[in-house]
Design goal:
The chain has 439 residues and is mainly beta. It folds into three domains: 22-136, Immunoglobulins (Immunoglobulin-like, Sandwich), CATH 2.60.40; 145-231, Sandwich (Immunoglobulin-like), CATH 2.60.40; 258-437, Jelly Rolls (Sandwich). Helix content is 10%, strand content 40%.
Length: 439
């Protein structure tokens, strides 16, 4: 009898042990992170069992003092955390119930590039997965200056940009997009990343582009030499003045034309992220700054981006609306397709995912074009105007108060309705200032 009891206990122990076995799974490909933005490092268990009662530890497998984030005994215990990660890591405790131990890292730094280990341990089992993080830093828009003429009449143009990571490529292109030969690019590394500088001599008139790029991001500046205005060493100043005047004129023309097509935008509370508070008249939205305990998926609502759509969509003609963004530190404004995906952190506010937006993050203005584009604005927009010409595939953004151009999407192909879209960032926004639809 004792033998039978011992045998049963042994078999039962094996069964219990096997019942707790799981596999820790990370992404197959490296995770791309953009310096200054937030990033999610994916990690989960299969099958999707709760890891609330387990130990979840994130570490750098390429560093000696490696602890990035530790969760144990139902709490975050980060006393031994690497100093540079203090206050920048977060686990979603609600997601732990479904086996999701992904780590949010914000804002990303160049030094965050490397290999991370996600280790999950229960009483009788443990496993880990590796996440390879690649960081790209988008530098400042290239600046073209005129260095004068040589004895044969060639125009010397210099292009420089800084703040890139990894080391970027700099190239000159003509108006047809054909690469132009130039001298060796000077590259320097500092604490902010890489700076590059290159000089070219051109003997023909037309538009000359300077493009600086890393693998997934690119910034470009152009100069037009076709108007025979390079008549003195003051050319650089003249060009800057002409460009400024043209931007103002463009803004005035857009403003005058757009008001004719102004529409009454009412925000649709049924589409809003559950953290958001939409005013009764549908004209204002702010982060309610409350903790959520979502059990059922609400497929019509945004669940990661703090976004909300307008109630009415447009599938033809032109329309225009304005959004006040004054004093808000995280925002996105634009339009979105009717069929756009609203759930999950894998979506991006880019044309590929059905969003055409401009926005502000960590003090920098961006558009989620393909690739990301940093917007160099001399004035901080207080009110953003959005003007859409549906059949032409055009979307214009401009600063209403200064009447200057911010950014344009051209040559787009729209299908179905486009809806006004505003967003207060990703997952949370502690700034209580609302975004306001202007009448």
């Amino acid at each position: 009898m004792k033998f039978i009891c011992l045998t049963l206990m042994f078999v039962s122990g094996i069964t219990d042990s096997r019942s707790e076995q799981y596999e820790v799974v990370g992404p197959a490909d490296p995770v791309l992170a953009v310096a200054g933005e937030d990033v999610i490092l994916p990690c989960s268990v299969k099958p999707n069992i709760s890891v609330v009662d387990m130990r979840v530890e994130w570490s750098r497998s390429d560093q000696k003092d490696s602890q990035v984030h530790l969760y144990v005994y139902h709490k975050d215990k980060n006393t031994d955390q690497i100093q540079s990660y203090r206050g920048r890591t977060k686990l979603n405790h609600q997601e732990l119930e479904t086996g999701n131990a992904s780590l949010k890292l914000s804002p990303v730094r160049v030094s965050d590039e490397g290999r991370y280990k996600c280790f999950i341990q229960s009483e009788s089992w443990s496993d880990d997965a590796t996440v390879d993080v690649k960081v790209e830093a988008v530098g400042r828009p290239p600046v073209i200056t005129v260095d004068g003429f040589d004895h044969s009449g060639g125009l010397h143009l210099q292009c420089e940009s800084e703040g890139w990571y990894p080391e970027p490529d700099l190239e000159w292109l003509d108006s047809e997009g054909v690469s132009l030969s130039s001298g060796t690019t000077e590259t320097h590394r500092n604490t902010d990343g890489f700076s590059v500088k290159n000089t070219i001599i051109v003997y023909h008139s037309g538009k000359i582009h300077c493009r600086v790029k890393v693998k997934h991001h690119m910034l470009e500046t152009l100069i037009d030499t076709s108007n025979n205005i390079f008549i003195s060493w003051r050319t650089s100043m003249i060009l800057s003045s002409v460009a400024a005047v043209l931007f103002v004129i463009t803004g005035i023309l857009i403003a005058a034309f757009a008001y004719k097509y102004r529409v009454n935008v009412i925000l649709d509370a049924d589409s809003a992220h559950p953290r958001l508070d939409v005013s009764d008249d549908g004209k204002q939205v702010r982060d309610g700054n409350r903790e959520l305990n979502l059990v059922d998926e609400e497929t019509d609502k945004f669940d990661e981006y703090l976004g909300v759509l307008g109630k009415d969509g447009f599938s033809s003609g032109s329309f225009y609306f304005e959004v006040q963004v004054k004093d808000q530190t995280k925002w996105d404004v634009g339009v979105a397709r009717e069929s756009v995906n609203r759930t999950g952190w894998m979506i991006s506010l880019s044309p590929e995912d059905g969003y055409w937006t401009v926005g502000l993050r960590h003090g920098k203005y961006w558009t989620r074009d393909s690739p990301y584009v940093s917007l160099s604005l001399t004035v901080k927009p207080q009110r953003v105007g959005v003007f859409v010409v549906y059949e032409k595939g055009l979307i214009y953004f401009y600063d209403v108060e200064s009447m200057t151009h911010i950014h344009s999407f051209t040559g787009q192909s729209f299908t179905g309705k486009l809806y006004p879209f505003v967003c207060l960032g990703f997952q949370e926004n502690k700034n209580s200032t609302p975004l306001i639809i202007c009448d």
